[in-house]
Design a protein that fits this description.
Pfam families: Trypsin
Order of helices and strands: EEEEEEEHEEEEH
Keywords: Disulfide bond, Hydrolase
CATH class of the largest domain: Mainly Beta
GO molecular function: serine-type endopeptidase activity
Strand order of the largest sheet: 6-7-8-11-10-9
Radius of gyration: 16 Å
Oligomer: single chain
Helix content: under 10%
CATH topology of the largest domain: Thrombin, subunit H
InterPro entries: Peptidase_S1_PA, Peptidase_S1_PA_chymotrypsin, Peptidase_S1A, Ser/Thr_Proteases_Immune/Dev, Trypsin_dom, TRYPSIN_HIS
Strand content: 25-35%
Number of strands: 11
Number of helices: 2
Structural class: mainly beta
GO biological process, one term: proteolysis
């Protein structure tokens, strides 16, 4: 069963959305697997890595921000098979707007398990445009709004927690959190901002080592 997308931070740690773990609250971390090594979910190069521990942000509540979680893997991912994510360390008070970005995820476009990793184009926009023009009411300081720009689909089921990457700077700026409806084109989506959470991420990585 495929649940969510994620971002590899280093050989031992993976970042995703906290809401990905709401559906099965009784499952232990060891019951989750992370697939890595290929852009196809079912491929000879794709390996599964068991999760050993899980930390959700302590202030996370659905639709109220801080939708972020850190996973530690039981065994490290071979470093020759992956590219680690570069975190966005920019000013935590100002949200970047009009930035061209790509969502990289496994979103479902039809029933069943997705097979291929795909990219979807977005552009970050100002909060007031999200509120007024698109009636997006729940956006918090810890989130950023981005609108789907091109392609036949927006972000779909299974893309939750997937990385939003700055096209020009090649940095991770957000994780997909929620939208009104999955797969909608030319609509806005909410992403958890990375920059306000960098200190928390680094501290948890230190504690969980």
């Amino acid at each position: 069963m495929h649940l969510c997308g994620a971002t590899i931070l280093d050989a031992n740690f993976v970042l995703t959305a906290a809401h990905c773990f709401l559906k099965y609250p009784k499952l232990k971390p060891k019951n989750y697997l992370v697939a890595a090594g290929s852009n196809r979910l079912f491929n000879a190069k794709t390996k599964r890595f068991r999760v050993s521990s899980l930390r959700k942000h302590p202030n996370f509540k659905p639709l109220k921000g801080h939708d972020i979680a850190l996973l530690k893997l039981a065994t490290p991912i071979p470093i020759d098979n992956i590219r680690f994510a570069a975190l966005d360390f920019r000013d935590t008070t100002r949200k970047p707007s009009n930035v061209n970005t790509l969502l990289v995820g496994w979103g479902r476009t039809k029933p069943g398990i997705p097979k291929n990793l795909e990219t979807v184009s977005f552009r970050t926009i100002k909060d007031d445009m999200c509120f007024v023009d698109h009636r997006f009411k729940f956006l918090t300081h810890s989130e950023i709004c981005a609108i789907h720009t091109t392609g036949v689909r927006g972000a779909c089921d299974g893309d939750s927690g997937a990385p939003l990457v700055d096209v020009n700077k090649h940095k991770l700026v957000g994780l997909l959190s929620y939208s009104r409806k999955p797969c909608e084109v030319h609509k806005v989506y909410a992403f958890t901002r990375i920059s306000p959470h960098v200190s928390w991420i680094k501290e948890q990585m230190r504690i969980m080592q």
